[in-house]
User: What shape does this take?
Amino acid sequence: MIFGPKARLIVVLCLFTNAALAESQPVWGLLPLMQSLAQVRTASARFTERQTAPVLSAPLISTGTLTYAAPDYLRKTTLTPVPEIFTLDHGKVTLTGSPSGGTHVFALDQDPRIAGLVEGIRATLAGDLPALDRFYTVSLTGSAAGWQLHLLPKDPSLARFLRSITISGSQDRIATIDTESSDGSNSMMRIQPGSVNDAP
Amino acid sequence: MRPKILALGLWLLVLAACGVIAGRTSYRTDMGDFLPHSASLAQEVLAGQVNGGAASHIVLLAISGAPTPVLASLSQSLAARLRQEPVFLDVINGDEQSFAGAQNYVWHNRYLLSPDIAPASFSVSGLHGALTNDLALLGSELGLAMGQSLANDPTGEMLRLLDRFDNGTGPAKQDGVWTAPDGRAALLLLHTAAPGFDLDAQQQALASVSDNFARARSTTPGAGSAYLQMSGPGVFATHIRDATKQDVTRLSLLAVLGAAGLLAFAYRSPRVVLLGLLPIASGALAAIAAVSLAFGFVHGITLGFGVTLIGESLDYAIYLFTQTGRGEQASDTLRRIWPTLRLGALTSIAGFSAMLFSSFTGFAQLGLFSIIGLIGAAATTRFLLPHFVPSGFFAGGAEPIAWPLHRLIRHKRVARGALVAALLASLLALSTHRGGMWDNNLLDLSPIPAAAQQLDRNLRHALGVPDERYFIVFKAANAQEALQESEALTPTLNRLVAAHRLGGFTLPSAILPSEKTQRQHQVALPDATTLQENFVQAAAGLPFNVQAFASFFADVAAQKAAPLLIPANLPPALALQFDSLLVRHGADWVVMAPLRDVIDPSGVAHALVAAGPPDLAFVDLNQESDRLLRNFQSQAVVLAVAGSLAILLVLSAGLRAPFRVLAVAAPLAAAVTMTSAVLTLGGAKLSIFMVAGFLLIVAIGSNYCLFFERSAPGTPGWPRAMASIMLANLCTVGAYGLLSFSRIPVLHDIGLTVAIGTFLSLLCGAVLSTPAVKEIR
Assistant: This one.
C-alpha cells in the first residue's frame, strides 16, 4: 500500500471537489475573455485619443477610425489634426499619408519596442494570449460587463520606454486603451463602436 | 668510381640549390592566382573578394534540437560569450546589442550621413513641415515609440537613414533572437576578425565557437539535446584542409605500404625499394624550384596535383630494377632500356608541354612542374641510380607477378576480338550518350561536400544573407573620387528601385559619404542662434514645447563643428562592409557595389552605364563564372588535343616507322576511349580534372606500350620486361585507385580516371602493341 487510509480519503475528497467545481458555471476570467475576443472576425470604430508628452506643450487630441480584421490586420487612420495612416498587415507596418513624411515600412520584429507596442493591441484584439504572454505579464480585473486588462512589459528594452498598457472593455468590446510610457508620455484612447466605411 | 662521385656530387649540388629555392618560395592558395592573366578587372577584384572580402569573414550558425525558448537563451548565452572573444568583430543573433554599433554610429552622425541635409531643411518653413509631420507620427499607433526620439531628431533623419540602411528583411525573431521561421533553430551571424583564407585563425575562431557553445549548453537548463551547425567560407576552407590532409595522409600511407610491400616482395631488398623513390623526389624538388623561379610563387594546387602528374617517374626505377637480369650490371640494363625510357619520358613531356601555353596560370604552372619534374626524375634514373644498385642485385620475386600478362598475350587473338568489341561498344555508348558529358556546375568542382553546400544555402536563405549576383564595378583615382562617383549614382539607383526594376543596393557612400558631401552638410546646418530662432517661429501655432528640443540644438551644433568622418570612425561591422565596397586595387580604388533583387538586368545595366563613370561595368557573377568555366573547359580540351598531337609527333620522331607509331598510339587511344565510356556510363560527368587524367593515362600508358612494342615474346629479356610493366601497373592502379576513395572531388576524379585508364592501357598495350612471335624470330 502506497497510501494510508487517511491520505486516500484526502485524494478522494479532492477528486470530489474538483468534479463539483467542474459541474458549476464556468468562471469568467482571462481565458474566456480571450476566447470571446477571438470570436470577433472584423471590427471597426471611431476613436478619440488624448496624448501628453514632454515635447508637447498642450495635450494632442487626435481623432480617426480603427479597422481590424482577424488575426493580423489593423489600420489606424488618423484624420485630425494631421492625417496619417498606420497599417499593420502580416507583421509588416506601413506609415503613410502625412503631408511631408513620405512612406515608411518596418518589419514588426525589427524593433522590440515597435513589436511590443503593436502586439499589445493586436494580440488583445485577436484574443491571442500566447502572443500577449510573450511580451507582457497579463492580469485581469473587473467582470465580464466591465473588465480591465493590465499589460506589464517583460522585455527589458520594451520596459525601458513603456510602463504599461491598460485596456478596458465590456464583453467582447474594447472601450479604452491607456498607454503609459516611462518618459512621462501618456496616451488615452476612447473607442466608440460604430460602422466605419473603411473595410480592408 | 670517378663517374659515380661526379654524378653524386652534381646531384647533391643541384638538389641543394633546388632545396634552397623551394625553401624561399611563397606558396599561394588564392583561386585568383589560378585564373588567367587576362581576367577582367571585375573578375580579379571579385576573386580577391572571395578570398579576403567581407563575405569571407562570415560564419553562419544554427542551434537546433531544443524548444524555441531554450534555443533563444542558448543563443543569448553563446552570443554574450562570443562577444568577449577578440577573434570576432561582430556577433549578431538578432538581439538589441547585435546592431548597437551600427545604430550608434548612424545616430551620432545623422546630420553628416542623412541624404537630405540642405539649408532648406532648417529654414522656418522646412522645420514647420517637419514638426507637422511629427504631429502626424505622434498620432499614429507608433506615437509613443516615435515620441522618444522626437526631442533629438524632429527632422526625422533617423527614419530616413533606417529606410536606407535596411538591407532586405532579416530572419524572423522569436523570444528576442533570430530564429528559423518554424522556430526550430536559433540563427546567428558572426564576422571573424581574420579573413577566410587565414586558415589557422579561422580554425581558432571555429574552435572558440564550439567551446563556447559547449559551455553555454552546459549552463542553460534543458539544452542538453541542442546541437550546433556551422557554415561559411572559413568553415569550408578549414574543412577542406582537414579532409585533404586526412585523405592524403591516410590514402598515401596505404598506397606507400601496398607498393612498398609489393616491391619488397619483387626486389627482395628494402634498400632498392627506397632507392626507387629517389627519381620522383628529386624531380619534384627540381620542379618546385623551376616553377618558383619562373612564376615567382607556387600555387598550392600545382604542388598537390603536380606530384600526381609526375607519378610515372616512380615507374622509371621499377623498369630499371626489374629488367636487370641475373648477373647483369644495373648500368648495362640502363644502357639497354634507356632509349625506350627516354622516348617514354619525352612522350609525356610533349603531352604536358601544351599546358605551358595555357592562359590559366595554374595550368601553365602544372605544365612546367611536370616537364621539369620528369626531366629531373629521368636524369636521376639515368645518371645516379645505376651507381647505387647493389652489385649482383636481382629482383627475384618479380617474374611470377607477370603471369596474368603471359596468359593474356598467349590468348591474344581472342583478347583482340574482345577488345575490338568493347571499343565498339564504348564508341556506341559515347555517341548515343544524351544530356551532355560535361559537368557544367561549377559547384561540383568545389571540394565541399554536397550536404555542406546545402546546409550553407539553407542557412544563408534563413539568415537573409543576400545572394550577391549582380554588382556595379568602377574605378577611381582615389577614395574620395570613388565616393563622389558613388554618390552621383545614388539618384539613378533610387529611381530604379522606385520603378521596381531593382530591389535595393549598397553603396560605400551610404556608409561613409565623401568629404565633399560631409562639408556641404556642415555648411547647410545653421548656427545655434539661427536654428533656435527658426525653430521658435516654425513651432508657432503647433502644440510643441520648444524647451524640450534643447538636445536637438546641441546635436546640430556639435555635428556642424565635428571633424569629418573617416574610415577609422566606422564600427567594426560597418568597416568590414565598407572595405569590401571600396577596394584598393593597385594604384586605383575600385567601387564594387552589390545590387539586390535585380528584376530587369539589361534595363538596369543600361541605365547605370549611361549614368555612371565611363568605365562602369554591370557584372553578373553567374555569367562571369559560367564564362570562366567554359573557358576552362575549352582550354582543357585544346590542351588535351594539342598534347596528343605533340605525343604523336614525338613517337613518330622516335619510332620512325608509321606502323610502329600506330602500334603504340592505337592502344592508348582505345584505352582513353573506353575509360571515358566507363566513366560516362557510371554516371560521372566529365570534369577538367578528368581531362588532365586522360593526359596522365597517355603519359603512363605510353611507357607500357613502348616496352610491349620493343620486346617480342620469347626473346631473352621478355619475361623481365613483362614483369616490370606488370609491377609498374600494379603500383599505379593501386595508388590511383586508393585516391579515388578521397572525398575531395579533384583527387577522386583524377584517381578514378587514372586507375581505370592505366589498367586498360595495360590490357590494350599487351594485346595490341606486342609484336607477333613469328615476325621477330
About this structure: The two ends of chain A are 66 Å apart (CA to CA). Residues 47 and 191 of chain A are 5 Å apart (CA to CA).
